[in-house]
Amino acid sequence: MRLLLVEDDNHVAAALSAVLARHGFDVTHARSGEEALQALVPESDGFGVVLLDLGLPDQDGYEVCGKIRKRTSTPVIMVTARSDVRSRIHGLNLGADDYVVKPYDTGELLARIHAVSRRSAQEEVTGSTETQVLLGPVRIELPTRQVSVSGTPVQLTRKEFDLLALLAQRPGVVFRREQIISEVWRTSWEGTGRTLEVHVASLRSKLRMPALIETVRGVGYRLVAPAA
């Protein structure tokens, strides 16, 4: 996932960027409100999440959030030392999707990033008129939960279908193991890792396309769309 980090403190940004990169994020660092807005021009490749610090040197962070929301629907998480309820409500009213107060736990921040990203992806799917996903010879019928390869039906278990449908939401994007476990199994990573590996292996076998689901070592999995 591409993430836009808006933070004027280079030391803080460098440390946080390193942590995010280790968890599979492609981080772009903007040091001011203007840099952030320039990075969010319509012709850009797009970001999955904007992590917005409110203490910026050129513009008030709340003002930047309002401008971002007018420009894009990309989820915005505000990061600030302001912990009062009024500040949080003001940020949310301007269009922020979540609010993290400094000092924060890195694990909590990662969880919030994935949470707003999931909500955004689910809203895209819900608001879409598409009822199927086509990935080369693979056809995924979302309403009927049916899958076929080159016209031949493939029988999947409920969790196998849920896993495939999740990865197919964003072909090429790496889904972290913890994120997949949370979304498909509705539980924590503890003790469920082997179950995920077994389901991935089963999908590769049933679809007869071992390269469809790629393992990203130390991070998770991504779906590689095959040629038609």
From TrEMBL:
Keyword Transcription regulation: yes
Residue numbers of 4-aspartylphosphate PTMs: 53
Residue ranges constituting the Response regulatory domain according to the UniProt record: 2-117
Record's keyword terms, sorted: DNA-binding, Phosphoprotein, Transcription, Transcription regulation
TM segment ranges: none
InterPro entries: CheY-like_superfamily, OmpR/PhoB-type_DNA-bd, Sig_transdc_resp-reg_receiver, WalR-like, WH-like_DNA-bd_sf
DNA-binding region: 130-225
OmpR/PhoB-type domain segment(s): 130-225
Pfam families: Response_reg (PF00072), Trans_reg_C (PF00486)
PANTHER family, per the entry: REGULATOR OF RPOS (PTHR48111), SENSORY TRANSDUCTION PROTEIN REGX3 (PTHR48111:SF72)
Protein known as: Sensory transduction protein RegX3
